[in-house]
């Protein structure tokens, strides 16, 4: 088992160490996620949207372990939507998760299985509990890097397909300078 201990930077939530994996997501990787697809195509496809540092000290999919990760979302917009994570349900729908904001300002967007979407403002120190059966996505609503720490069960898994095909029932858009959820028609 790979348990060499990474280190946490409390200001940025960055986790570093030999056992930390990093995943990067660029503008090209976000194809299909934004309402304004032409606006996305106008951006440099190689531009970084967010990266995830993850420490997986238990085998993925095995019941009983915990994973720790940090997500760092760049400031930016695609049309009137913010740079954001793809968002996912857990493959095992009855698995929950914690998010803790370290820096920047953002929004945690939650959608339950009945398609009801709400958001919680994120700011340094805010603690967010993602209940089971809820899809979750984070948008950077500020003009600086947004970073947050996450902790989730090792058998939660990621279901990206449901969000990739159906999306959330509402989009978080910048309406006259304020983030607001707008129902998808
Ligand atoms: C958090 C956790 C991770 C997730 C990451 C990025 O760190 O929820 O499991 O991978 O955010 O979100 P997404 O997977 O939706 O791109
Ligand atoms: Zn999750």
Q: Which strands sit side by side, in order, in the main sheet?
A: 3-4-5-13-8-11
Oligomer status: single chain
The CATH topology: Jelly Rolls
Any idea what the radius of gyration is? 16 Å
Structural class: mainly beta
Binned strand content: 35-45%
Bound molecules: 6-O-phosphono-alpha-D-mannopyranose, zinc ion
Mean pLDDT: 97
The geometry reads as globular
Q: How large is the count of helical segments?
A: 2
Instruction: Describe the sheet with the most strands.
Output: 6 strands, antiparallel
- Give the termini distance in whole angstroms: 48 Å
Would you state the CATH class? Mainly Beta
**Share of residues in helices:** under 10%
Total domains: 1
Describe this structure as you would to a colleague:
The structure is a single chain. The chain is mostly beta strands and 185 residues long. The protein has one domain: Jelly Rolls. 6% of the residues lie in helices and 43% in strands. It contains two helices and 15 strands. A six-stranded antiparallel sheet has the order 3-4-5-13-8-11, with no helix packed on it. Strands 10-9-12 form a three-stranded antiparallel sheet, with no helix packed on it. The chain has a two-stranded antiparallel sheet with strand order 1-2. A hairpin with a 5-residue loop joins strand 9 and strand 10. The longest helix is centred in the first third of the chain and has 6 residues. It starts with 6 loop residues before the first strand and ends with a strand. 32% of the residues are buried. The model has no long low-confidence stretch (mean pLDDT 97). Bound molecules: 6-O-phosphono-alpha-D-mannopyranose and zinc ion (ZN). The site of zinc ion has 6 residues, from loops.
């Amino acid at each position: 088992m790979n348990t060499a201990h990474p280190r946490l930077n409390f200001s940025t939530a960055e986790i570093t160490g030999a056992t930390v994996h990093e995943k990067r997501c660029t503008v090209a990787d976000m194809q299909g996620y934004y309402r304004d697809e032409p606006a996305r195509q106008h951006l440099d496809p190689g531009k970084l949207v967010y990266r995830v540092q993850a420490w997986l000290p238990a085998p993925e999919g095995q019941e009983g372990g915990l994973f720790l990760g940090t997500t760092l979302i760049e400031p930016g917009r695609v049309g009137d939507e913010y740079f954001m994570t793809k968002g996912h349900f857990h493959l095992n729908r009855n698995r929950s998760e914690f998010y803790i904001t370290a820096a920047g300002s953002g929004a945690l967007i939650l959608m339950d299985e009945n398609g009801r979407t709400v958001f919680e403002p994120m700011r340094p120190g805010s603690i967010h509990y993602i209940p089971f059966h809820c899809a979750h996505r984070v948008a950077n609503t500020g003009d600086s890097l947004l970073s947050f720490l996450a902790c989730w069960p090792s058998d939660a898994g990621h279901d990206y397909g449901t969000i990739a095909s159906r999306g959330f029932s509402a989009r978080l858009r910048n309406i006259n300078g304020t983030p607001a959820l707008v129902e998808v028609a």
